[in-house]
Amino acid sequence: MNIGLQVASVNATVTVEANAQIIDQNAISNSVTLNSNSVENLPIRGRNFQEFALLAPNVMQEQDRFGMVVNGQRSSNSNVSLDGTDFNDSLQGGQRGNNDGAAYWFPQSAVREFQFVRTGASAEVGRTNAGFLNVVTKSGTNTYHGEAFYQNRNGSLTSPDAFNNPSTNNSQHQFGGSIGGPILKDKLFFFASVEKNKVQIPYMVKFTPQVASIVIPQSILEQQGDFYNTNNPLVSFGRADYILNSKNTLNLQYTYSVLNGGNFKGPSSQTTSASSNNKYLDRSSQGIKAAVTTVFASTLLNEMRGQFAYDNRNEDSVVQMPQIDITGFGTLGGNSDGHIFYYAKRYEILDNVSWNRGAHTLKFGVDLNWNPQQQARETNGGGDYSFNSIGDYLAGKINQYQQAIAANGGQGVYRGMQQDHAAFIQDTIQLRRDFTLTMGLRWEGEIEPQPKRPNPRFPVLTGQIPNDLTMWQPRLGFAYNVAGNTKSVIRASAGLFDARTPAYLLQRVFTDNGIDTTIIDTSVDPNAFNYLHFPNALTSVPAGVSQPINSVYALDPAFKNPRSGQVAVSFEQQLDQQTTATISFVRNSTWGLQRRIDTNLYPPTIDAAGNAVYPVGPKSTAGVLRPDPTVGQINVNQSTAHSDYNSLSISVQRRMSRRLQFQAHYTYSTTRDDDSNERDFNRQTAFDTYNLSLDATYSKQDIRHNGNLNAVYSLPWGVTATGIFMARTGQPWKAVVGSDTQNDSNTVNDLPVFNGHVIPRNSFRLPGFLDFDARLLKSIKLPKLGERARLNLSAEAYNITRSTNKNLSSNGESKSGKALANGALNPFTGWPFATNSFSIPTNAPATDRFGGPRQVQLGARFVF
Q1: Low pLDDT (below 50) residues in the chain
Q2: What predicted TM-score, i.e. pTM, was given to this entire model?
């Protein structure tokens, strides 16, 4: 029989509405998250994930380096995490590869999302007094998915640089891909990614122009011109996720990176240093991580992670000869650093326990780090000739020669192990449905390596490096849902945050203690002139040349890590179902910042112009009268510098809806400090070592107005348009003479005199910064290759407005030279100083950075 069955009636109807909450009413921290849609589609020049942090408020990039400046803090004091494990450089500070210019150190195709916590971090987060960036990687699923891509930029698609120098040498090829999927369905998954970058970044060598009466030899003029630096990183990542049983999951990860770079020193598009002064770089890194997540009960979870990683870097001068510095002209010869290497390892074990009980969510854990390190770096290890002018150079009139020469067979080599250990406890209490309170306490301890050969004359300063085992960091915060409807939330947090001390600040206590390295300096003993054979370096200490006036580098016995007191208050309001607006105030006051001062000086005399001039001594002490005449500078690293940061920021964020998502941020801020050094290995910048308050002013990182916008817009016909817009006001810069006018054997702290008065530190400001990048993508479906298969063709344009974005050196300084006689004005600058480039911005971002020359990049990506 054929029987037809029909529906008699409908017994139930289910209606689904997309009204998911977009405000986390329980979160205490202020954070910015970039999802996979942003990571895959926003135009980023270098595929370096750290650059995404610049799309948050309260963040900027250093003037001429690549570190993140968060809440006005030094970039070496930030913290980067990869899937919850440490991804920082223990030697240099900041992210691995932080100082390597255009090099990226992790494949962007492996990144799922970024979370950048700028304020209110819980007690689980430490080793930073600035911001915290956590990168979450992709994993495999039950279906195979992946991509393969190729991107190209070349000279014909690149505009002249900020100084109208041609960019014909520009070339970049980026290619790679990823794949993920199941090994055992529902059980074991894998994901792998690999990327390669072959790039030539153009830069122009132009020496400072001279008056017509000075004839420059052709052999020198030929060293000007269009050059390029190269870097060819290969980066890869792999992970496996194994569901062992219903309670345990295992995660394994592997990272590998290698890089070879030529002419790698400095990312600026123009320089006054000959290409012979540049460097070669070889670098390699590997890391292995394992993690086990165990569910003991529905309310009890344990996460254990461990990693081993190493990061090795070698640098060599392009030409093996001394450096030749010519004031007011440029730099010739080789590089004074000579051979440098950095070798760092990391062994890390973490364990966190999460326990939910009633209104409490309790989390506690430990983080143990062992960091063996080796570093060879010696200032002027290759030798350095200096001349007061190009005229003196042509006449063979050497002003000064300096060189560090090995003593006792251990010149410039530091070996040691830092230990960073931490423990924390955090309780999140749901006091009411509309009020969440967090209380936490974190302890950190940094155990330092100890010198094995202290100077017996200075046993306290050179015989020990103080540990910091008292970094107790209480944290407190709350989130209040104002109307009880999750649309209006007030967040407030306060706490103490301690940063780590990178090991590069420790090295000179080991290697420059007054006995293991001998400094030859003609300003100390002019007899050394008699043994020089320009342009060669010395091979040993000449007989009869005075040696006891060595400088000593030391660490203050009271040295502590930087500590910040941070207070943040914010109000977040939901504007519609997909959009929120946040207004927030942040204050970050930091004590214990590192500075280096010469303690072997008598109090200076303040002259009529306000200049601090130290007492004159006999020629045998380089003209400096010192309390201890048997030694030169006693350069002591102290934790006595201070900074204050205050900001008001407004953010509007929209998650993807009706084809559009965007984030817009504006920050008004002030940053003041009394020392702005960043990774200073050999500089003593204090104007008056007996009155450090004279250096208190706006920091070189001070930016009054800072705004950025990023957006992804999905148009019809498979077209996606994305863009990044950044704008900020100029940073302060400092005028320096460039020679020793204070009589302290130091040339980096001397301030010029104008109209009868010393020009205070950071009295001037650079031009502002503007960058607009855009990307247009067309997605073509390939149904014959699979339901998800498609070909994405893209065209990107960087710095569309071709803003110049000029700046000064990484130290934020411009050299004035000596004052001209009779009030004459320099025709090149309009200032009464000898240097022809004083106050004129001499650097600009190269093609690997935000704000570099205008470029077009074409690309193709196959996704399946």
Answers
A1: 1, 3, 6-17
A2: 0.91
